[in-house]
Amino acid sequence: MKIQGNQFLSIEQLQAQYLNQNRQQRTSQTAEGLSFQDILSGKTGDSGEAEQVRFSKHAANRLADRNIELTEEQVQRLNQGTVKAGAKGINESLVIVDSLAFIVNVPNHTVITAMDQTDTNDNVFTNIDGAVIM
């Protein structure tokens, strides 16, 4: 506690002093030089780059069980298909890349399930509201 001229500071003076110190310590940039807006844009996908698709546990298991390995080019096309579906307002999309079919939750950029051409029963897909063929 500081004493000014043999007098104690009032609560209001201490609050103002404390709050001003905290404001000075806070900066608009992080240690990496990114502003809060940059970080927020990166988390919400507004950075200009398309957010990469993620694979649900179910989809990852399906890929592993069927020995399906995606190339970097196929993953890139899957991302592009997801972006195209989002631009058209699709929520649950079928994205076909080569002979592989993916059901993608577009708002979350998450692949829900994946299959190859031999696994599709009669080529019927349900619970989707759009399809993108890449």
- State the distance separating the first and last CA atoms: 68 Å
Question: Helical percent range?
Answer: 25-40%
Which strand order spans the largest sheet, edge to edge or round the barrel? Answer: 3-6-5-4-7
Output the structural class: alpha/beta
| Morphology | elongated
How many β-strand runs?
Answer: 7
- Note the total helix count: 4
The biggest beta sheet is recorded as: 5 strands, mixed
* Strand-residue proportion: 15-25%
User: What is the N-to-C succession of helices and strands?
Assistant: EEHHEHHEEEE
What are the low-pLDDT stretches, counting only 5+ consecutive residues below 50?
none
Assembly classification: single chain
Mean pLDDT: 79
What value does the Rg take, in angstroms? 26 Å
Write out key terms for the chains shown.
alpha/beta; two-stranded antiparallel sheet; about 130 residues; 7 strands; 4 helices; five-stranded mixed beta sheet; elongated
Gist of the model:
The chain is of the alpha/beta class and 134 residues long. It has helices spanning 11-25, 36-44, 57-65, 72-87; strands at 3-4, 7-8, 54-55, 92-97, 100-105, 110-116, 130-133.
